[in-house]
Amino acid sequence: MPTLRDIVTKGLSHLPENGRRTLAVDAEARQILRSWMQGRKTTPRQEAAQPAPESVEDKLAYLRERAEHWAPARRLGSLRDTMVFAVGNPHARLMLVGEAPGYDEELRREPFVGKAGQKLNDILRAMGLARAEIYISNICKFRPSMGANQGTANRPPTPEEISACLPLIQAEIRAIAPECIVCLGATAAKGLLGSEGSVGSLRGAWWETQGVPVRVTYHPSYLLRNEALSARRAVWEDMLAVMERLSLPISPKQRAFFLPKN
Ligand code: URA
After folding, report:
1. Does residue 178's CB lie within 6 angstroms of at least one atom of ligand 1?
2. Rounded to the nearest whole angstrom, what is the distance from the C-alpha of residue 112 to the centroid of ligand 1?
């Protein structure tokens, strides 16, 4: 009986006869073809006994490609075309989840690179973490559209837009398997926890999604609008809880950040 490899090889060999010189293959198919070309000969039983061949990097590359053509989001017609995936360390212990790309993120195709991103970088620096050490993503992978004259304006994603993109962030969480997640703002919490609550009502406790502990804090853009010491301290206390969970070193000076001076 011909194997799947025999059938695919035969089909591919007939492509030129049918006038085809190129073929679009996704990341998963590419990986299978590469392993065949490397002459890996395994029986189906051996194949099944082998550990999953995909590394976290491969899984993320595959997801990025799926996200690019993600039909549930594209068919809504309310999200812009450019897909902005995620950035950071595939082996991160900490994963941050924001809302959706804005004007700057869409231009650079990277989450949190605008003003809110600079505020986020400040927070990470205060924690003693570099951006490259953690994994940063968004609940919605496309900038929500506001019509032809949108300019630099942004809006949060609707519940439909969040649901359409949710399988992507859920698959990222499974691939990264972080030790904890921080939801930056109520939109991320709504997506990951299914909660309608405000950040004020959700912060200060540990929640869970797909078996991973989740902390909810204010979105960095909230701190751009509200410079009060109490707002900065609130976010900082959430981050101290995350640092404790990850057993990161915390100095007395760090513990006292954003406390009122006597
Ligand atoms: N706000 C978000 O929630 N995500 C981004 O990537 C940028 C701004």
Report:
1. no
2. 5
Query: How does pLDDT run across 169-212, given as a tens digit for each residue?
Result: 999 999 999 999 999 999 999 999 999 999 999 999 999 999 99
Only one residue has tokens 């995350």, namely 242
Unique residue bearing structure tokens 């989840």: 97
Residue 187 CA to residue 210 CA, distance in Å, equals 18
Q: Is 220 in the pocket of ligand 1 (CB under 6 A)?
A: no
Alpha carbon of 80 to ligand 1 centroid (Å):
15
Q: For the whole model, what pTM was predicted? A: 0.81
The CA 83 to ligand 1 mean position distance, Å, reads 13
Please tell me the distance from the alpha carbon of residue 100 to that of residue 243, in angstroms, as a whole number: 25
Determine which helix (DSSP H) or strand (DSSP E) holds 209, and give its type and residue range.
Answer: strand 207-209
For the CA atoms of 68, 73, 78, 79, the dihedral, rounded to the nearest 10 degrees, stands at -30
Phi, psi of 247 (to 5 degrees): 55, 40
